[in-house]
Amino acid sequence: MSEQLAKELQLEEENAAFPEVVAAAEGPFITGENIDTSSDLMLAQMLQMEFDREYDAQLRREEKKINGDSKVSISFENYRKVHPYDSDSSEDEVDWQDTRHDPYRADKPTTTPKRGFIGKGKDITTKHDEVVCGRKNTARMENFAPEFQVGDGIGMDLKLSNQVFNALKQHAYSEERRSARLHEKKEHSTAEKAVDPKTRLLLYKMVNSGMLETITGCISTGKESVVFHAYGGNATEDKVIPPECAIKVFKTTLNEFKNRDKYIKDDYRFKDRFSKLNPRKIIRMWAEKEMHNLTRMQDAGIPCPQVVILKKHVLVMSFIGQDQVPAPKLKDVTLSSEDMKKAYYQILNMMQQLYRECNLVHADLSEYNMLWHDGKVWLIDVSQSVEPTHPHGLEFLFRDCRNVSQFFQKGGVAEALNERELFNAVSGLNITADNEVDFQAEIEALEKMNEDHVQNHGKKLSTFSSDGDPPIYDE
Ligand code: ADP
Ligand code: MG
User: Fold this and answer.
1) Does the structure show a pLDDT above 80 at 64?
2) Among 216, 167, 466, 170, which residue's Cα sits nearest to residue 324?
């Protein structure tokens, strides 16, 4: 039978076996008025992911069958759909530290001293000895990039000839470079597409479960998060879903988060967990932090989004704004001088409440993270907020105060305190330095005192002692 004929026959057979695939595509799912193709891409991606996984599983089965118990095996690695460096599915399960200690690691090979041989008389072994050399080469495979799979070779008494070792080394290096390239590509693509397939799936499930009615579009793409607008769906037994929701997706690309370590690493609430986590989990922790902080603020009655639900790195909260239009940031509205003054006093009070009742410092407070809605200011973006006794808590507070002071002083609010007065008013501390440098030095001294307390007593101060309650400012 000619190859051509064989192909045709196979095609016929396939068409006969799967006619419903075509039918389904034209079937009940798409109607004239419902040609919504927005989720098609996602569905296709989900199916593709599923297909790739099955394909790889099949490949592994074949690989196993062919290799059997044979000592020499061939690998189908290069034919896999999901290249090991593309896949991060294992990341969810494996913690960093679990892989640090490798119980299978072979003992270090004995080294040959400078003189070039060991032993005496007949038992002399030189560094050129084939067996010693082979073993050394095997052990040197450990120096390859961690993701380069060297199999059980290190554990066995395997002797690699120089030639084989050099070829492997070459291969390891080029794989390392390829991995770096792939990684770079991946980072780019997630940045462009805003959300990766896993996140899409999460969002899709939220709509599918009826919790959300529709996700209408993206409100903001920042360095660390993407925010979407959605119409709320049906209430569940224990939850009322607001009519409009904001969905904050914390980006799972890791680069931007590296320099934010300092906020969370020293936050005692997360301290025990930080060191044990892989980067993906750390990002979930940011989302978790935002949730906890919003809840504290809500309890204190500070105007802020209300938490609806947290799923992994996706936080759903109430939408500040109306009819899909988010409330403007304070930096984007022009307020009458009366409203400006009102906003100022409100923020002053909120900062005090935040500090005293919520035991929090916003740590990224500025006209960018305050929305003007319903004639008042709403605070958002609190994933980086920390407790005042965080090792840098007071410095963060001072920075917040500087932003707020400058904004309102420039905005013509004559009553606006300067940053040092504001800092004292919020914290109730009485730092008297009259210039910024000395003031900052005193802040750092206080932080150091707290750190010393931690060193000596194993716990931090519950609060910084102040000379009584901070003054209450009112209009
Ligand atoms: P980022 O860390 O990226 O700055 P934010 O929490 O500040 O994240 O959100 C980015 C933008 O998304 C905000 O400036 C605001 O315009 C919008 N936004 C965030 N949360 C809400 C919300 N609950 N309601 C309305 N708009 C929101
Ligand atoms: Mg922001």
Assistant:
1) yes
2) 216
CA 413 / ligand 1 centre spacing (Å): 26
Q: Is 364 a catalytic residue?
A: yes
Question: Residues near 427 by Cβ (< 8 Å), separated by ≥ 6?
Answer: 355, 388, 394, 397, 464, 466, 470
> Does the C-beta of 219 come closer than 6 Å to ligand 1?
yes
How much is the pLDDT for 323? Answer: 97
- Sheet containing strand 212-221, strands side by side: 212-221, 225-232, 244-250, 314-318, 307-311
Question: Is the CB of 307 within 6 Å of ligand 1?
Answer: no
pTM of the shown model: 0.62
And the tokens for 92?
Answer: 């969810």
Q: What is the pLDDT of residues 16-55, one digit of tens each?
A: 554 443 333 333 333 344 445 556 666 776 777 778 888 8
Looking at the CA of 194, name the nearest ligand. Answer: 1
d(CA 318, CA 336): 27
Query: Which among 390, 364, 387, 405 has a CA at the least distance from the CA of 446?
Result: 390
Distance 227 CA to ligand 1 centre (A): 6
Q: Which ligand is nearest to the CA of 308?
A: 1
